[in-house]
Specification:
homodimer; 8 helices; globular
Chain lengths: ~325, ~325
C-alpha cells in the first residue's frame, strides 16, 4: 500500500491529472480535452472516473490521501474557480466543494494554476531551498506566483500575483480584461502572435507564415520558423523577451527574489526568449539587484509539471 | 519603573529619536541635524548622550529594553546602512554593531526606514488588523515597504520594497541611481519640483514661484502656492498623484494589499496628492481589484511617526 495524492491541472485546452507519491514521483498521468465538458458536473464525474481507472490500473495498491487542483483564476481560500476567461464555465464555480462529494474522506484543495506551479517548484523543482522567488507561466496568458518569506503571497482577496496585468505601455494593446497595455498582451503565446503579425504587416522580410491568417497561426509555428532562421520570427521572440525582462525588473524591485522560474508552453522556446529576457532584466534592474537574480527554466522534470504543482499543493496541506 | 524602548529615525535632514512605551505612547521625542556629524562615531556618541539626557529628564524611571533604528538603505539582516544616497556617510556602515557598544545589555536592531514605518503602522497605526498592506514614504525620494501574510517582505538580499525604482517611462527622467524613468524621479519632493519646473518652462501661466531657481524652490513652497490656487502648482500635484496611482496599480496586481498607506513630508499635501492618486489607481487597476484597495494617509498620530516605526521594530523583536 503506497500513500499518494491526485494532482489535477485544469487548463484552457487540456485537463491533466496524475497520481503522485510523497517524493514527487508521478506514478501515472493522463489528460483529456477540457472543452469536452461544458457542464462542470459532467466534467467532475468524468474526472473522478478517470482517476479511479488510473488508480486500479497501477500495479501497486494506492491509498489516496488527498486531491490537489490547479486552475486558472482558482481561489485557494474559497476553493472556487472565478470567471475563468479561457474556460467555458461562467461565473464563480465552487469546484472544490462540489468535487468533495466524490472524495468525502480526504481533503480536496484548489488554487490558482501559477500558485500550484510555484509550490511544485518549491517541493520538487529548482526552488527547494528558496524562500523568495517568482514563477511565471507563459501560456495563452501570463500567470505568476510570488513566494516571500517561504510562503506564497495570496494577498487580501487571494488574488495576488497578477503580473499578466501590470502595464507595459500607456494606451498599449487592448487586453481581454478591458485595460490597455497589460503585460500578457505582449508576453504570452497570444502576445507573441500579435507581435509577429504586426512585424509581418510593418516589415517586408520573407516569411513562410506570411500568408496565414492570425487564426491559423500558432506560437509553435512562429517558434519553428524562428529555429529555421526566419528573421521576423526571431525578432518577435526578441521583442517578447525584452518586454518580459523590462517588467520583471519592476517585480524584482518590489520582492527581491533569489530566482525567477519561467514555465508553460512558451518557455519551451528556451534561449529564444530567455536570452533577450535576461539581457533586458539586467539592463533595467535597479543597480543594487544587478547580478543578484537568476532567470531560469522550471526545474520540474518531464511533461507533467503542472500536475506535480497540483500534487505539491495537497502534500503541503497534509504535512 | 516603566519598560520602554528608544526609537531612532535617521533621515537625510534630521535624526529624530524618542522614548516609547509598550503601548506606543511616545514619552518624549527630540531631533538634531544629521548633517552635523559627518563621522558616524561622533554621531553615535552624540545620539547616545541625547538618549541618556532624555531618559533622566523624564519624571518616571525608565528601564530601557532595546533600541530600534530606521535608516535610509538600512539592512535588517546585517544591521548596516548601505551607501545611503542622502547621508554624508559612505560605503557600508555597520551601524547596529557599532551602536551596540553603548547598549551592551539590550538588543539594538536596525532596518530600512520605510520598513520601520510599516511596522509602526502595523503595531500602532491603521494596519493593526491587516496582514497585507503597503506603506509608501514620500520624502526626498520614494521609499516603500510591503507586508504579505502578516510579515514584511525582505526578499533574498534584504532589499525588497524598492518601489522608488520601478519604471514609469522608458527613457524618462534621469534618476540618481543611474537608470531613467524611475518612479521617484516623478513622485517625491524632488520629483514634484522637477514636474513644476517643467510646467513653468513649458507653460505661460502666472506663478509667484516663476523667478526662483530650482535650488531655492522647495516642495513646501509649491504646496503653499497650490493652496492659494496657483494653477501650475495644482497641475504639478495632479500629475504627481496620477503617476503614483498608475504605478501603485502594478504593485496591487502583484501583492493584492488591503490598503496602501502614504506617509512622509509630501503626504502632508493631503487631497492635493491623494485625490488624483486614488482616481488614477482605480482607473489603472486590473478589474478584479477595483474597489478593493484603500489609499490612506498614515494613521500614526503626531509628529513622531518615524520614531514610532523604529520603536515598533524593537518591540516586535522583544515579543
Amino acid at each position: 500500500m503506497i500513500e499518494a495524492v491526485a494532482g489535477i491541472d485544469i487548463g484552457g485546452t487540456f485537463t491533466k491529472f496524475g497520481i503522485i507519491d510523497k517524493k514527487g514521483l508521478c506514478l501515472k498521468a493522463n489528460s483529456f480535452a477540457t472543452g469536452s465538458y461544458s457542464d462542470v458536473d459532467k466534467f467532475q464525474k468524468h474526472l473522478y472516473e478517470e482517476i479511479q481507472t488510473m488508480k486500479s490500473s497501477l500495479n501497486k495498491r494506492i491509498s489516496l490521501k488527498g486531491v490537489g487542483v490547479g486552475a486558472p483564476n482558482g481561489n485557494y481560500h474559497r476553493g472556487t474557480i472565478e470567471s475563468p476567461p479561457n474556460l467555458n464555465w461562467k461565473g464563480v464555480i465552487p469546484f472544490a466543494e462540489k468535487f468533495k462529494k466524490y472524495f468525502p474522506e480526504i481533503p480536496v484543495v484548489l488554487t490558482h494554476d501559477a500558485k500550484a506551479a510555484a509550490l511544485g517548484e518549491m517541493l520538487y523543482g529548482g526552488a527547494k531551498n528558496m524562500n523568495n522567488f517568482i514563477v511565471i507561466t507563459l501560456g495563452t496568458g501570463l500567470g505568476s506566483a510570488f513566494v516571500a518569506n517561504g510562503r506564497l503571497i495570496y494577498g487580501h482577496n487571494g488574488l495576488a500575483g497578477e503580473l499578466g496585468h501590470v502595464n507595459v505601455k500607456r494606451n498599449g494593446r487592448l487586453c481581454r480584461c478591458g485595460n490597455r497595455g497589460c503585460l500578457e498582451t505582449y508576453v504570452s503565446a497570444t502576445g507573441l502572435k500579435r507581435t509577429f503579425s504586426q512585424l509581418l504587416k510593418s516589415k517586408s522580410g520573407k516569411s513562410n507564415l506570411r500568408n496565414l491568417s492570425s487564426e491559423e497561426m500558432t506560437s509553435e509555428m512562429i517558434y519553428n520558423e524562428a529555429r529555421k532562421g526566419d528573421v521576423l520570427a526571431l525578432e518577435a521572440f526578441s521583442m517578447t523577451g525584452e518586454i518580459l525582462g523590462f517588467k520583471l525588473a519592476d517585480a524584482v524591485a518590489i520582492t527581491n527574489p533569489q530566482a525567477i522560474f519561467i514555465t508553460g508552453g512558451l518557455a519551451r522556446a528556451g534561449e529564444l526568449i530567455f536570452k533577450p529576457a535576461r539581457k533586458s532584466l539586467e539592463k533595467n534592474l535597479f543597480s543594487v539587484f544587478r547580478g543578484k537574480v537568476e532567470l531560469l527554466p522550471s526545474k520540474l522534470k518531464g511533461e507533467n509539471k503542472s500536475v506535480l504543482g497540483a500534487a505539491a499543493l495537497i502534500w503541503k496541506e497534509l504535512n
